[in-house]
Amino acid sequence: MPNLSSSLVGKHNQRLNALAPSGIRSFDKKISSIDGLIKLTIGEPDLDTPEHVKQAGIDSIKNNDSHYADQTGKKELRDAISNHLSNKYDLKYDADSEVIVTVGATEALYSTFQTIINKGDKVIVPTPTFALYFPIIEILGGEVIKVDVSEDDFILKPEKLKAILDEHGDSVKALLLNYPSNPTGVEYSKEDLAGLAEVIKQHPMYVLSDEIYSDLTYGVKHYSIANMLPEQTIYLSGLSKSHAMTGYRVGYICGPAEFIKKVGMVHAFVVTSVTNSAQVAAAEALSNGENDPVEMAKIYQERRDILYKGLKELGFSMPEPKGAFYMFAKIPAQYGKDDENFALELAKKAKIGVIPGSAFGPGGEGYIRLSYASSKEVILEALKRLQIFMK
Fold first, then answer.
1. What is the pTM for the complete model shown?
2. 52-288 is a CATH 3.40.640.10 domain
3. Tens digit of pLDDT for each residue in 320-355?
4. Which fold has domain 14-48+292-390?
């Protein structure tokens, strides 16, 4: 096994030295060796990819669909994305010039940030939130403005956004929104988004709208800020959550044609194109699987209701999730605010794996995130163990 030449030690991108490891992944790894652990940690759907979607991917392979796809994505998938967004959310994107297919939503995020960030640019990120956003911005030379919204029902309010923009001026390049939210499950209403749009349109800035969980909502209609600010919004999503396709790695970016042309350059340099069979499966999911997320959402909602009721009875407090499949629960006061220690004790003594809330940035301290992308039986067993632990 080769060792790196001593003359090369330290000769790498120095921004990497300042990046913290993923709090979600590192904590999950820390507790995963515990025997008998019930894991409510990772946001991984336990449901299977629909059969018709899998078959489409299989057929693609059998039909020798093995040559380079268009760098912006297969035409059939771009058409399916455009039609899906138009039919379900009334979003109008031209499949040929305003849609690009990416290797999951993660690449969509990276390529988008790479396209817009110059050294010193600032990005506003309401927290607590999915912490992957922070290192991507920082490694590209940007600065994250973390805005704790935990005291505002986990929603960024227009007056708070205005105050930040008044303070930082044109150095703010973008606002990142994620809704329904990971980790809280909170959804922005049409009124919430309209208030933010009124502030944003007065400034030369992008809105990066990560709506990966938009197809999994409970009792509310999902609206996109892209309907209100199409000229400033970059819409990001994918099929990992909606169709239980995390391993297929298919995401997409939609926005004004001028922007898509630029982000397409970054995308082409990074990945060339997305795997053919995964794109064919994704096209099938969006074209003929519109009801698949509806059925999955019913299952998740039943689990949400069980977990929410059980946690409330044990003294936890939390917003009732309106989307995604996470519960962000505030630890009862008698256990203090050290969420990492609480989560470790929970793993060791009750054999329940959760993620400490501090992994999601300011405002997450004193909370734990539980994923209910697990079976009803697993959730009931976790609640039983938790009840014994808290006695």
1. 0.96
2. yes
3. 999 999 999 999 999 999 999 999 999 999 999 999
4. Aspartate Aminotransferase, domain 1 (3.90.1150)
